[in-house]
């Protein structure tokens, strides 16, 4: 569990940077070279390589050789880890909201009972 938490920390840490999140989003559409990834940014290839290194260490991307190209691939396996972590807490939050809905429904039921008996008492006094 600790190893998994460490991995999650690296993943979320890597995704904390907006440039790296953008790179991941672009790689979701398809593989790209470092030059292709660097194109929209006003930074050096070295800076893009550093971002990619962080993403690679987090397990989000991997590099390969394809003839003369060195494409960067998005590694979707790590998203399964993130999804499981998020779903666990999402389920807990949903259960809390359901309990809150039940409490509110009971409170509203009591309020409507009080409102109904007040209305009945007022009609009885008027009649």
From TrEMBL:
Polar residues bias locations: 114-127
The UniProt entry, under SUPFAM superfamilies, shows: Winged helix' DNA-binding domain (SSF46785)
Entries under Gene3D superfamilies matching the protein? Winged helix-like DNA-binding domain superfamily/Winged helix DNA-binding domain (1.10.10.10)
The secretion signal range is: none
Q: Which residues form the HTH arsR-type domain?
A: 1-93
Q: Which domain of life is it from?
A: Bacteria
Task: Provide the residue span(s) of the region labelled Disordered.
Answer: 108-127
Protein name, as recorded: ArsR family transcriptional regulator
């Amino acid at each position: 569990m600790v190893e998994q938490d460490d991995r999650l920390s690296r993943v979320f840490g890597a995704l904390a940077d907006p440039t790296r999140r953008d790179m991941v989003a672009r790689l979701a559409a398809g593989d790209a070279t470092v030059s292709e990834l660097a194109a929209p940014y006003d930074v050096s290839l070295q800076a893009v390589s550093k971002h990619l290194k962080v993403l690679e260490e987090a397990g989000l991307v991997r590099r390969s050789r394809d003839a003369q190209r060195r494409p960067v691939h998005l590694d979707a396996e790590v998203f399964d880890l993130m999804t499981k972590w998020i779903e666990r807490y999402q389920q807990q939050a949903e259960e809390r909201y359901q309990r809150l809905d039940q409490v509110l429904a009971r409170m509203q039921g009591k309020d409507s009972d009080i409102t109904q008996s007040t209305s009945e008492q007022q009609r009885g006094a008027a009649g």
